[in-house]
Amino acid sequence: MNLTALARLGAKHVRNAVAEAAYLKTRLDITRPTAVHAILTLRCNSRCRYCGYWREDGHLDEMNGEEWRAALLSLRAFLGHYHVEFTGGEPLLKEGVTDLLHFCHQNGIRFGVTTNGSVFSERMAEEVIAARPLNINISLDSHIAEIHDYVRGVPGAHARVTQGIRRLLTECEKQKADVSIVLKPTVHALNFRTLPETVQWMQEMGAASVNFQPVGRWTPETDEELWIGGQYLEELEGVVERLVELRRGGAPILNSEPLLRLWPRHFREEKAPPEAMPCRVGMRNFFIRPDGDVTVCWFFPPIGNLKRNSAREIWRSPEAGRRRRQTTSCDRLCLFTCLSQKTLIDKIKMGLRLLAGSRRRCAMAPDAHKG
């Protein structure tokens, strides 16, 4: 991760922390988005047991490349330098995606990609790294192939993902690119006991860090086999303590200790505790759906559409103002990595861990992808 880019993003978070405090105390709204997510497509080549996107008969109309470029430039006109995280579905299935990534690089828009990691041919890895992403987040549930393949619903998925990671590391070394490779396991009943071992495996693979996300109740399989409940909660608490210990020992776990310790409450489906209130996503998040709709949270309606209005107009609209009032009153306990509450200190520590992990990965890269 580039230190200058990290410092620039950090300065924006400091500014918005002040703006959030002003909003909460006086309702003076000078907030701006600091977490921009672009959902390029809902199409996916995985069949994850906790996801519903791939089960849908039809998909949202998708913005084309020209419309996406216009949307990203609209955000730049509003925010100046910013970071956008491209997600899906599987974002790398989007037609013309590498052209869009290079467009970002050419126009000073920092970006990351969250992917299942299965489509990294040598050519795709080369083109993505050449666009100089800030980070590549790879959804990998376990170092144990049988667990990952079963939950992701595709035999051989684990082998393809690990091959993709090696190709990315090779390209980072070849192109002398400073890119943070972050593994993102979804935490569920089939993998939670082995998460500490997954952290060790991740470090041996050469990834920069790991960012855990507890599963949500999205599908029948979540209720039937993936939710962590009953007698398993005590085991989960023990695993959390091991992860906290690993993190204190220097393991590159991006989740903060307070968020790790909220996992049992999440699986008990408790309301958000006072220390996690008020919810701030309405003052931070700018989620762009494939059709151009903009939301601040999955659980609330859109606040506008980028095919009809600029990013500034959408964020300053009466609908966005209503959504900020609604979300700051919400007591849902959300531990999804794009929604969970993070303090300014948490964000600074996360950035430093990413930076340290990236440097460690670069140092070990010559040996990390052998075999």
Describe the structure.
46% of the residues lie in helices and 11% in strands. The chain is built from 14 helices and 11 strands. The chain has helices spanning 3-26, 65-79, 97-106, 122-130, 145-152, 157-175, 195-205, 220-226, 232-248, 257-260, 263-268, 311-315, 318-328, 344-368; strands at 35-39, 83-87, 110-115, 135-138, 180-183, 186-187, 209-210, 213-214, 285-288, 293-295, 304-305. The longest helix has 25 residues, at 344-368. The relative contact order is 0.14. Residues 359-371 have low confidence and may be disordered.
Summarize the structure.
This protein has 371 residues and is an alpha/beta fold. Helices cover 46% and strands 11% of the residues.
Helix content: 40-55%
The total of helices stands at 14
Question: What's the Cα radius of gyration?
Answer: 20 Å
Mean pLDDT: 89
Bin the strand percentage. 5-15%
> Class by helix and strand content?
alpha/beta
Beginning-to-end CA distance, first to last residue: 26 Å
- Sequence of secondary-structure elements: HEHEHEHEHHEEHEEHHHHEEEHHH
Overall 3D form: globular
Strand order of the largest sheet: 7-5-4-3-2-1-9-10-11
| Number of E-type strands | 11
* Contiguous runs where pLDDT drops below 50 for at least 5 residues: 359-371
- Largest sheet descriptor: 9 strands, mixed
What's the helix and strand layout?
Elements: H1 3-26, E1 35-39, H2 65-79, E2 83-87, H3 97-106, E3 110-115, H4 122-130, E4 135-138, H5 145-152, H6 157-175, E5 180-183, E6 186-187, H7 195-205, E7 209-210, E8 213-214, H8 220-226, H9 232-248, H10 257-260, H11 263-268, E9 285-288, E10 293-295, E11 304-305, H12 311-315, H13 318-328, H14 344-368
Parallel strand pairs: 1-2, 1-9, 2-3, 3-4, 4-5, 5-7, 6-8
Antiparallel strand pairs: 9-10, 10-11
Helix pairs in contact: 1-14, 2-3, 4-6, 6-14
